[in-house]
Amino acid sequence: MAPDKPYSDIPGTTIFDAQQARLGYHLNQFCMSLMNAADRARFAADERAYLDEWPMTEEQKQAVLDRDYNRMISHGGNIYFLAKIFLSDGQTFEQAAASMTGLKREEYRQMMLSGGRSPEGNLHKGES
């Protein structure tokens, strides 16, 4: 991220801006292809072969294979596009979000029902 962006110093946060959109264009287009049942079937049959049809970076492809949504986001993935992957896998948004936080599904649910994560540690580095 360019250093002049006012949001570049929020720990653990990747803002989906124009730069991220360019970085993740092909990753997000791949995700959109999963809206088509025939493409979902091809992906399920041989994930690597299907991914190799897309001009994504090797890091993006490996993140998809690993179902590492945080890494996909850091490489330009947009959560609304990435949803096509976890929904194709039969997961809910809640299950995917829990995996992104490192919590079990029930722990994640309880955290969200009790008001979500504390903002502690998520402020700009210059804020207290």
Quaternary structure state of the chains depicted: single chain
How large a portion of the residues is in β-strands, by DSSP E? under 5%
Number of helices: 9
Unreliable segments of 5+ consecutive residues: none
**SSE pattern:** HHHHHHHHH
> What shape does the CA trace take?
globular
Radius of gyration, Cα only, in angstroms?
16 Å
- DSSP strand count: 0
First-last Cα distance: 23 Å
Can you walk me through this structure?
The chain has nine helices and no strands. The protein has helices at residues 18-23, 25-33, 37-45, 47-51, 58-66, 69-74, 79-88, 93-101, 105-113. The model has no long low-confidence stretch (mean pLDDT 89). The two termini are 23 Å apart. With 128 residues, it is mainly alpha-helical.
State the gist of this model.
This protein is mainly α. It is 56% helix and 0% strand.
Question: What labels would you give this structure?
Answer:
single chain, 128 residues, mainly alpha
Element layout with pairings:
Layout: H1 18-23, H2 25-33, H3 37-45, H4 47-51, H5 58-66, H6 69-74, H7 79-88, H8 93-101, H9 105-113
